[in-house]
Amino acid sequence: MSNIRRPRSLALALLLAACAHAEADREDVTAPPLSETVAIAPLDEALTFARVTRDGVRRVLAVTSYRDGRVEGVDLGAEDPITLFVAEGYKALRRRIAAAPAQAFAARDLEIPVDLGDHHVATGLNFPAHAGESGAGDRPFLFPKLTRPTGPYAPVAVASRLLDYEVEVAWVPLAPLAEGERPATMGLILCNDYTDRETLLRTLDPWDPASGKGFTTGKSFPGSLPVGNLFVVPRDMRAFASALELSLWVDGRVRQHAPLAASTWKIDDLLRETWARRGLAWDDRGASVRLPVVDGRIPARTLVMSGTPDGTIFQAIGTGQRIRGLGAWLLGGWGRSLPDHVIDAYIRDARDGGIYLQPGDRVAIRVERLGAIDNEVIP
Fold first, then answer.
1. How many Å apart are CA 162 and CA 146, to the nearest integer?
2. Does residue 40 form part of some domain?
3. For residue 21, how many other CB atoms are within 10 A of its CB?
């Protein structure tokens, strides 16, 4: 079908771009001030883990306090927190932590708090306000994200990308999950789902963005998935998650702030939708990829990402860019689709205006009871 016969789909074709910098019209009126203090859940509500390296050995800490850039925690030994939790269980670990003396560490010394995989479940348009700002409709969707997570303070390279941020909470299975299983316990961790908007725009399906086509390619590159400095295992994971408030700052100014409860799909929905799509395939740079289901199970240590709220750099594409793209197409550009010409116009404006993340920017996330991420953007 030609582009002329599908004009009503043009709005979908133009959805993934920004015509103005998010900070230009967003004020810090709801998020708390950016600080080096994070509330830690009491032991009867959640176990909070971190990791540090001492004398060349990685150690697991049970964090009991996080204030003014210092954390206090009980050294639980050279273990991975998931391995430790599966072996000892919630009650035994709680007793062990409560009875032991805490040690102090600098928060900046905290590393990736848990061993994770490199094949994850990612979610698009799961917050209605973000779906609205994108102009993409109101239908959430899933896609694979193929990235090895990096540490909470790792730098993130711009390279040639139109680099965007996305604060998210990820669920982490502690054991493989079978279809239909409703887990009683999972871990929670923060992540920043960095995105190359130009690559995403060039590879998405403009007629059906909710297919997720192009999202794996636009969001899977080295350094695109730093995770938080804490790994939290709640006693009641659904109630715990419903109270979380997500906040992200760039250079000290808030860009995103929303409750996780505002998401459309909660964890049970995300798992159900993963199973419903396990037979689908996405293209990633010529390779066929699927959601992470191995031997009929979602593997332990997979991130099940909850999507991001509104306030990302990209917004619905501008009218002027649509008009210029249409003009380029009408003036002999028929060898390429109309959306391609509009995307060209957008990308030129985005680069000329410098509206995406630039070297020297600092992107910081703080979520009470869940931890922090702090990345410097480098060339």
1. 19
2. no
3. 17
Residue 320 domain-assigned? Answer: yes
Locate 93 and state its tokens: 């670990």
Shared-domain flag, residues 218 and 332: yes
The gap from C-alpha 134 to its chain's centroid, in whole angstroms, comes to 17
Q: Measured between alpha carbons, how far is 283 from 285 in angstroms, rounded to an integer?
A: 6
23: exposed, middle or buried (Cβ count in 10 Å: 0-12, 13-18, 19+) = middle
Q: Determine whether 354 is exposed, middle or buried from the number of CB atoms within 10 Å of its CB (0-12, 13-18, 19+).
A: exposed
End-to-end CA distance of the chain: 42
Instruction: Look up the CATH number of the domain holding residue 261.
Output: 3.90.850.10
Q: Answer whether residue 41 is part of any domain.
A: no
Q: State the residue range of the domain holding 345.
A: 7-30+115-378
pLDDT number for residue 137: 65
Instruction: Tell me which residue has tokens 């931890």.
Output: 371
267 vs 31, more confident = 267
pLDDT for residue 30: 65
Q: Does 103 lie in the same domain as 144?
A: no
- The answer on 139 and 104 residing in a single domain is no
Strands 156-157 and 371-378, sheet pairing:
parallel
Distances in Å between the Cα of 95 and the Cα atoms of 44, 59, 88, 98, 100 are 10, 19, 11, 5, 9
Give SS3 for 293: coil
Domain count within the chain: 2
Q: Residue type for 313, please?
A: I
The bridge status of strand 287-289 relative to strand 297-298 is unpaired
The predicted-structure confidence for 324-372, as pLDDT tens digits, reads as follows 888 888 888 888 988 888 888 889 999 999 999 999 999 999 999 999 9
